[in-house]
C-alpha cells in the first residue's frame, strides 16, 4: 500500500467510523491481544523484545554507626529500590526530609558505584557534614522518559547535606533528581514506545521512553504520556491526533484500560481513528492490557477497526498505519553483473525492468524507493546522481551533477536523500582561525610562509533532498557540515535519519530528527547510538525503532548487530556469515537480514544466528 493510499484510508476510516459511533453514542472495547506486543511488520522490535521483568532489590538500609561516606554509598545502592515511593531511600534521611523529598522525575545515570568519588567536609561541631559526589555521567532520563546519552565530558556533580540524629548520620538535604547506576536503570526501567504520526498521517512513529517497570499502573502512565505529547526531541518531527490542551484521566482494572478525555477542540469525528490507533499501538506492548474503552467529553466513542473486538484480527484498519512503513511482501534487491535484481520471500530472483535491469549504467551505490517503482544511484566516479523508473523503457535521468556524492536513500514521502562530500571545497576555504598573521611572524623574526597543506582534507558534508526524485533542495544540516558522512539512511516514516560518520580512525552512528518548516527542511539534534561498538561499517533501518548495523565489539570479528533507538539498550549480535568477510548489511521489518560478502555473494539469516548463502551478487538492499 502506498503512502498516499494509507493517508487517504486514514482520513476515510477516521471520518466514517467516528461519525457512526458518535451518532449512535455506542461504547466499545478493543481487545488487545494477550500474547505480547510482537506483531508482524510492527516496526517496533526493540520494545517488543523487552519482557518487562522487574528484579526486586532487597535494600540493606542504613547501618548503625556508619560514617558519612558509608551512609551515602548505602543510600546510592538503595535508591534503586522503587517500592513504596522509595521507602528504603527515605530511611537514610531525617524525618523532615523524608516528608519533603519529592523526586522531580529526572534520573542522573552513572556507570558503577566503584567509580564514584565522594569528598566530605565536616563542620567544627562534628554534627553537620557535606558530601560531594562526582562521577562520569552516562546519561540523563528526562521527566518525559527520554533517555539522553551524555557527552564524554559530562559528570554527575551533586552534594548531600548530612546531620546527626541521635548520634547517627542522616541526609538533611539532597538533589531532587534520582541518581542511579546503569545497572539499576537496566533493572528498574523498561523501554517502551509512545506512538505518534508522521507529517502526512500515513505511518505511526515510535517515541522511545523509559518507565519504572515495578508498577501495576504502567498502562495508565503510558496513556497519560501519550496524550500529553511526544518527547521534546521528537516533537517537531511528528503529529498527534490528541488536540493540544486535552486533559486525560485513565484507569486500569482487570485487563481493561478506560481513557477519559476532555477537550475544547470541538468535534473529534476526524480524530477518533488517529486517537484509537495511537492508543492501541502504544498499549499493545503490555500483555496485561486486554481491553480499551475511550470516552471524549463524557461521550462513549467507538474505536474504529474494532468491529469484532480484536485489534489484530479485526478489520485490519490498524495495519494501514503500521509503523513498519513497508508491505508484508517487501523484496530485497542486489546487483549482479551491473544489473539490478530482486529477491522475494521465497528467494525467487527477477531482473528489474528498465535501464536498471539492463545494467548499462554502472552505479557505485543505489537505493530502491519504498513503492519499489524507482531506483536512484550514484554513477561511477561519484560525480552524478541518477534516477530511473523500474518499468519497461525506464531510462536514467540526472538529478544532481558536478559533485562528489556518496550515499542515497528514499523515505516514505517519496523524497530522495543524497549525501555530498564537500571536503574538497573546504580545503579551498581560508582558515577561519589562523594560528598567527604574517605580521606576527615577522615580529617573531620568522619569514611569513604559506601553511603546509594538511595531509587529510577537512571533512565536510552537504545533504540534498529531491522531492519525488526531482528538483533537489539543500537540507539544513549544520551538525554534519564539518563531518565526514559515510552513510545516510532515512527512516521509512520520513521523520528521522540515521548517519554513519568517520571520527578520526573510528566510526560513529547517529540518529537525527527531520523537521519541515517554512524555511525548508532540516536535520538536527543528532543523538549517538551503538556506543558499545568499536567500529561500524554499514547501517540500515530494520524497524521503526531499531537499526541493523555491521560492526565489531572490542576489536572482535565484523558481524551484524541490532541497535535500538532508545539510546540505552546494548546492541544485540545477529551473527555473521561463516568463513566470509561481510561488507554490507540490509534490513526491513519482518524480513530476513541480508549481507553482501566478499567474492560477490549475498547471504541471509531468518533467525539472526544461522546465515546461509543465497545467490551471487553484491550490495543487497531493501526499499528505503
Automatic annotation (TrEMBL):
Keywords: Cell membrane, Lipoprotein, Membrane, Palmitate, Signal. It comes from the Bacteria. It is found in: Cell membrane. This is Lipoprotein LpqB. It comes from Marinitenerispora sediminis. Residues 1-30 form the signal peptide. Residues 219-305 form the GerMN domain. GO terms for cellular component: plasma membrane. Residues 422-467 are annotated as: Disordered. Belongs to the LpqB lipoprotein family. The gene is lpqB. The keyword Membrane applies. InterPro entries: GerMN, LpqB, LpqB_C, LpqB_N. It is a lipid-anchor. HAMAP family: LpqB_lipoprot. Its main location: membrane. Residues 426-442 have a biased composition (Acidic residues). The keyword Isomerase does not apply.
Amino acid at each position: 500500500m502506498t503512502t498516499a493510499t494509507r493517508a487517504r484510508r486514514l482520513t476515510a476510516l477516521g471520518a466514517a467510523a467516528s461519525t457512526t459511533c458518535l451518532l449512535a453514542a455506542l461504547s466499545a472495547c478493543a481487545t488487545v491481544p494477550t500474547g505480547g506486543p510482537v506483531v508482524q511488520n510492527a516496526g517496533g522490535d526493540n520494545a517488543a523484545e523487552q519482557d518487562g521483568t522487574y528484579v526486586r532489590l532487597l535494600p540493606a538500609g542504613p547501618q548503625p554507626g556508619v560514617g558519612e561516606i558509608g551512609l551515602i554509598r548505602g543510600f546510592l545502592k538503595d535508591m534503586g529500590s522503587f517500592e513504596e515511593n522509595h521507602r528504603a531511600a527515605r530511611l537514610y534521611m531525617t524525618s523532615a526530609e523524608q516528608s519533603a523529598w519529592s523526586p522531580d522525575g529526572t534520573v542522573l545515570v552513572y556507570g558503577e558505584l566503584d567509580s564514584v568519588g565522594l569528598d566530605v567536609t565536616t563542620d567544627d561541631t562534628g554534627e553537620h557534614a557535606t558530601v560531594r559526589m562526582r562521577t562520569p555521567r552516562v546519561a540523563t532520563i528526562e521527566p518525559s522518559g527520554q533517555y539522553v546519552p551524555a557527552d564524554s565530558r559530562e559528570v554527575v556533580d551533586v552534594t548531600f547535606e548530612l546531620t546527626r540524629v541521635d548520634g547517627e548520620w542522616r541526609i538533611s538535604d539532597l538533589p531532587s533528581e534520582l541518581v542511579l547506576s546503569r545497572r539499576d536503570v537496566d533493572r528498574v526501567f523498561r523501554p517502551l514506545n509512545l506512538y505518534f504520526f508522521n507529517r502526512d498521517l500515513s505511518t505511526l512513529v515510535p517515541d522511545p521512553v523509559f518507565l519504572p517497570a515495578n508498577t501495576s499502573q504502567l498502562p495508565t502512565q503510558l496513556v497519560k504520556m501519550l496524550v500529553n505529547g511526544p518527547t521534546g526531541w521528537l516533537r517537531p518531527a511528528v503529529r498527534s491526533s490528541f488536540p493540544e490542551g486535552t486533559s486525560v484521566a485513565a484507569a486500569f482494572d482487570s485487563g481493561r484500560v478506560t481513557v477519559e478525555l476532555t477537550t475544547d477542540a470541538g468535534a473529534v469525528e476526524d480524530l477518533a481513528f488517529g486517537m484509537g490507533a495511537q492508543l492501541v499501538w502504544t498499549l499493545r506492548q503490555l500483555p496485561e492490557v486486554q481491553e480499551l474503552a475511550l470516552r471524549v467529553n463524557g461521550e462513549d466513542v467507538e474505536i474504529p477497526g474494532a468491529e469484532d473486538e480484536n485489534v489484530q484480527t479485526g478489520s485490519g484498519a490498524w495495519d494501514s498505519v503500521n509503523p513498519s512503513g513497508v508491505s508484508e511482501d517487501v523484496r530485497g534487491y542486489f546487483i549482479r553483473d551491473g544489473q539490478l535484481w530482486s529477491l522475494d520471500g521465497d528467494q525467487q530472483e527477477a531482473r528489474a525492468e528498465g535501464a536498471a535491469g539492463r545494467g548499462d549504467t554502472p552505479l557505485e551505490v543505489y537505493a530502491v524507493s519504498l513503492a519499489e517503482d524507482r531506483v536512484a544511484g550514484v554513477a561511477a566516479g561519484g560525480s552524478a546522481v541518477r534516477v530511473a523508473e523500474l518499468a519497461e523503457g525506464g531510462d536514467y535521468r540526472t538529478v544532481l551533477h558536478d559533485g562528489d556524492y556518496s550515499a542515497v536513500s528514499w523515505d516514505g514521502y517519496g523524497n530522495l536523500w543524497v549525501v555530498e562530500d564537500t571536503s574538497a571545497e573546504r580545503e579551498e576555504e581560508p582558515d577561519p582561525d589562523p594560528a598567527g598573521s604574517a605580521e606576527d611572524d615577522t615580529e617573531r623574526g620568522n619569514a611569513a610562509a604559506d601553511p603546509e597543506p594538511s595531509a587529510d582534507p577537512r571533512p565536510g558534508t552537504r545533504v540534498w533532498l529531491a522531492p519525488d526524485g526531482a528538483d533537489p533542495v539543500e537540507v539544513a544540516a549544520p551538525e554534519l557540515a564539518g563531518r565526514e558522512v559515510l552513510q545516510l539512511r532515512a527512516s521509512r516514516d520520513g521523520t528521522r535519519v540515521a548517519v554513519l560518520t568517520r571520527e578520526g580512525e573510528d566510526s560513529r552512528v547517529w540518529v537525527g530528527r527531520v523537521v519541515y518548516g517554512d524555511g525548508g527542511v532540516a536535520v538536527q539534534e543528532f543523538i549517538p547510538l551503538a556506543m558499545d561498538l568499536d567500529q561500524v561499517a554499514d547501517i540500515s533501518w530494520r524497524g521503526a525503532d531499531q537499526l541493523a548495523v555491521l560492526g565489531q565489539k572490542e576489536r572482535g570479528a565484523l558481524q551484524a548487530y541490532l541497535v535500538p533507538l532508545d539510546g540505552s539498550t546494548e546492541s544485540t549480535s545477529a551473527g555473521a556469515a561463516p568463513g566470509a568477510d561481510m561488507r554490507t548489511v540490509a534490513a526491513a521489518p519482518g524480513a530476513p537480514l541480508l549481507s553482501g560478502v566478499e567474492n560477490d555473494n549475498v547471504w541471509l539469516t531468518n533467525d539472526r544466528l544461522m546465515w546461509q548463502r543465497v545467490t551471487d551478487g553484491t550490495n543487497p538492499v531493501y526499499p528505503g
